[in-house]
Design a protein that fits this description.
The chain is of the alpha+beta class. It contains eleven helices and 28 strands.
Length: 599
Amino acid sequence: MSSRRRFLTGAAAAPVALAAVAGCEDGDRAQPAHQAQHTVKPAVAAPAAQTPSDRLNFVVILADDLGYGELGSYGQKLMHTPRLDTLAAEGLRFTQAYSPAPVCAPSRCSLLTGLHSGHATVRNNPWGPGGQGALTEQDFTFAEALRALGYRTGLIGKWGFGPNAPDQPGRPNPSHPNARGFEEFYGYLTHHHAHDYFPEYLWHNGTREEIPANKDGAQRVYAPDLLSARTLGFLHTHQKEPFLLYLAPTVPHAPSKDPHLGEYADRPWTGPNKRHAAQVTTFDTLVGDVTDKLTALGLADRTIVLVTSDNGPHEEAGTDPELFDGNGPLRGFKRNLYEGGIRVPFVAWSPRHVPAGTTDRPTPLTDLLPTLAELAGAPAPADIDGLSIAPLLRGSAHPARHDSLYFYRNHAGVTARQNAVDHGRGDRLAEALRRGDLKAIRFAPGQNRRAPDDQWDVELYDLARDPGEEHDLAAARPAQADALVKLMRASWAPVYPRKPFGITLDVTGEGGEFTVTATLANGSARPWNAARLTLDAPSGWLVHARDPAGATRLDPGDHLTARWLVTRPQVSTATTLTCRGTAHHADDEVTYTATATLG
């Protein structure tokens, strides 16, 4: 009986002698996408062609639970953030930026993939239904978009998705950062592990690196210090190449631990509050170290730095966000769908490429993927919810705006202040939608999303006149509330089917003979030209092309499919096949790669 395998992730393979084989001949016409079956999409790998050294670099820095009011540039008085305040003065400060969700995992999934929390793969934190969330082959991250152009990509810090291992049984883990576009990873894989500021180990790609100084509960090595050192090392190593660095330190998430109390040591506060303040300043120092390094390397003028947070301020492990006015003038905290739970600080900085000023454009972090792709010159999936703010970063006064912004909460855990703000409904499924200045929030009866509308509690606020959401207008404006509820229902889907994008590799057969089928799909909004598929097989293998493997043009929605008959020698230790799909997008060549390891 033959076996069938579908390989979709660019797992690393040992170097072998490879023979690149294309199809019989180039075809002139692409096939419409509906003629082939596509179930998922693959990871992206770097193209063979060299990438120009003058491309923009990008550093995305994501704080963990940093509230809207916890930076001096956003009104903070007790905690000092001089480096971030300088960036905010020199760069573009967003006054209405939004995390995609009020808790970590769904927020980070949406940030990476450009899908809001009604469409994203991960929609709850590990304590909700389903436990620790994981990305899938259908997810496409901003790292994958830039990797296709040859960017060196790194993630340092908290990934936040499972499992806590480099591999799943029998195949590469599609949720691992290395399979989702990050060629370099150092830090925590899962949400739970990231709560440990003095961990006994951290992951480096697929290797567990022990930290002996922290064994048996010892607290000698502070993880943020390790992340800082790796960050500066990444910038130094790749200073002559275009790079994307996603820096996701765990500060100031609970538990509030920081050995560097500094100026807060003598404050008349509790220990947790002193350490929380120190964590915020540690984050500020880290951002300053990054910009100093960029300046020292001569990279600041061609690097865009984006700094933000994954949700509102926390109140865990004894930290009091009200002492610090962590949500500023807004209502709510982490886990709330009121503004304090989802509106976050967001600063864009580049001495040469981002003008100084402020913007009140409602900007969800789902906008990062299309923005980074446009600034780099890479194609992005057309079926995402984010909109590019590249024109805004270039100084345009009229960037594209969302018709509405959707937020979803399906999280069982509650905290005291958050539950009080929710009037005792903190553990109930909830959703919110903003359209213009109107924002509606509704709470389900418990966790039942299918409950009839008349069983939900609905509130309506005018954020222009009432940014603190103190005056519920639902009873006075029922038609407007109903219209936003209708949009909420339309914004959430139990499963969000994706359009094919990039390359898939399907292998059937057994023993020594296999049929390899590769498909390159243009799921972007612009045509691709000079599309081509090539298959790399180990030296000595027999490869016979069954189809043309080229197309002059792939319009949006089109795909190119090619097949090869592959025969493995009887004596062969190499088992890896690699397929590359290349095409020209605008003026650049992009390359997507899928790798199959045969049994």
